[in-house]
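To: structure desk
From: M.T.
Subject: fold request, one chain
Message: Could you run this one when you get a chance? Sequence is below, nothing fancy, just the single chain.
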Amino acid sequence: MHPQWFVGFVDGDGHFSKSRDKSTYRYRFIVSQDKSSVAVLYAFQAFFKCGFVHKAGGNMMEYSVGNSQDIADIIIPFFETHTLKTQHKFNQFQI
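Reply: Done. Structure tokens follow.
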């Protein structure tokens, strides 16, 4: 699949999050879809070769990457090369 296909999905249905747990930060990259479109999430997992697909509640499923090393080595470099078009910026991801 073309990299811009993944960019389009993240622009529409993805986000980057950073939370603090006591003295450490936790980073996550998430793309959500209805369970009827779960194949899209498995395409993300196959493309990036990291992360997990899991139930997110109700009829929703998520592709999630929470490993800081995978985010630093795979996810961030991909989006530095293939720029997002919307406000889903990941500049706060200073790992």
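Reply (cont.): The chain has three helices and four strands. Let me know if you need anything else for the meeting.
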